[in-house]
Every structure is written in structure tokens, then in C-alpha cells.
Amino acid sequence: MRFADRIALVFGAGSSGPGWGNGKAAAVTYARQGARVVAIDLDAGAAEETAGIIRSEGGEAIAVAADVASLASVEAAVAAAISAYGRLDILHNNVGVVLHGGPLDLDEEAFRRNLDINLGSVFRTAKAVLPHFIAAGRGVIVNISSIAAVRWIGYPYFAYYTAKAAVNQATVALAMQYAPHGIRANCVMPGLIDTPLIYRQIASQYASAEEMVAARAKAVPLGRMGDAWDVANAAAFLASDEARFITGVCLPVDGGQTCTMNPVT
């Protein structure tokens, strides 16, 4: 029970389709290890589904709808968490969207919107949560980035690469600036993960979903994609007291892919 008596806010706690997305798995993992969870998602139904799973397993959770592109909405979600539980211990940022295309393919508004969600979410949630962490003299931030922050992975995702690289450095900046307040910040960089999201946002680039799965597995040295639990377990470690001397780290969870030159083909 790593997180007994801890309160975990998980932004992006819903799943984009049937099965286990990274945020949903993270929220349930925190709960299974003792945390009381605030499951936050743009989709109120998805947030409630995750909270319901936690409650069905004997855990404690509330669901909150919020838009990470709005500071007022994020602040309202944090206020709901404080109202329910009185304090905050863990901030987990899982929100992210993929946008296809390079600069010649994207219009300016789409590019800005992608940055605003992938990177702006980290800014807004930190802005809303940090005063509570500073007052408590402790707190943990876990941001979910991507190996796309540091590698070309084979897909034309100019805006996504840009935003996730910025999330990595934003994590380092948070870790260094707020270390004197007892606050740690790290990020997980998932590699090729088998989640509902890839069937909605990536499968259309292939002749079939089976072809996509085979191509992604081939690019990973371990010969398969990871799953949402691999990402959730890494996040839980970084959020736990076992990682109390770890901050400013961007951890690949990728089956070894960042050690190679293997993009998806």
C-alpha cells in the first residue's frame, strides 16, 4: 500500500475506447496501492467509468470533468479535489493528443491547439496544484511524455514531437525550481503502447489494425508493444517514496526502442 493516505489527481483518467488507456490504468494502479483518486477527464462518463472501477474494487475515488485547455476548468477540478479530500499529494498528467502532418500539412490553429493540450495541460495543472504542494512542503508530479520527445519514431507528428520534447524540459524545470519545497517532478516516456488510442488515431495509416500491430511490434527490441500497465507501474514507482531521491528524470518505458535506430515502418 505505497499510497495509503495519499491523494492522487489523475488528469486524463478516462479511456478513449474500450480497454485500458494509460490514464485509466494509472488511476486504478494508484488506487490499488492505497491512494484516494480524483479521476479527471474531459469526458465525464469516461472519468466516472474509471472512478467506478476503483470503487468496485473497494477503493475510494471521485470523478470530475475538466478541460485542460482552460485554466478555470483545471482550477475548478483542483478545488473539487480539495473539497473532497482536504489536500493533494500526487499530480499525474496523462492528457495528450496526436496530430498528423508536418508544417506544410498543418494550419496554424491546429498546431497551436496541439501545443495547448499536450504542453499547456502541464502548465495549467502545475499552476493550480503547486500552491497546495508548497503549503504542504511536499508533493509529486508525474508527467506522461513520449519517446517521440527524443526520437523520430516513424510517424509524421511534427506538433506532437515538439510538444512532448517541451514536456520533458518542463518537467526538469519544475523539478529544479521546486525541489527546495520538497516537490519532485519526473516524467514517463512511453514507447509503442497498445492502448485504445492507437486504434482511433494511428490505425488509419495502415491497411488494417493487424498490420499496424505487426509494424509496431517489429520496431521494438523486445518484439512486442507494451501496455497501459507498463506505463502505470513506472508512474507509480516515480510517485512513490521508493523514488524519493529521484527528480528531474525522463524515463523511457519502451522495450528498448530508444536504444536503437528503429522507427516504425
Describe the structure.
Its EC number is 1.1.1.47. With 265 residues, this protein is an alpha/beta fold. It has one domain (7-195, 227-251): NAD(P)-binding Rossmann-like Domain (Rossmann fold, 3-Layer(aba) Sandwich), CATH 3.40.50.720. It has helices at 22-32, 44-56, 71-85, 108-118, 120-136, 158-178, 196-201, 209-218, 228-239, and strands spanning 7-11, 36-41, 61-65, 90-93, 139-144, 183-190, 193-194, 226-227, 250-253. A seven-stranded parallel β-sheet has the order 3-2-1-4-5-6-9, sandwiched between helices. Strands 7-8 form a two-stranded parallel sheet. Helix 1 runs parallel beside helix 2 (44-56). The model has no long low-confidence stretch (mean pLDDT 96).
Describe the secondary structure blueprint for this structure.
Layout: E1 7-11, H1 22-32, E2 36-41, H2 44-56, E3 61-65, H3 71-85, E4 90-93, H4 108-118, H5 120-136, E5 139-144, H6 158-178, E6 183-190, E7 193-194, H7 196-201, H8 209-218, E8 226-227, H9 228-239, E9 250-253
Helix pairs in contact: 1-2, 1-9, 3-5, 4-6
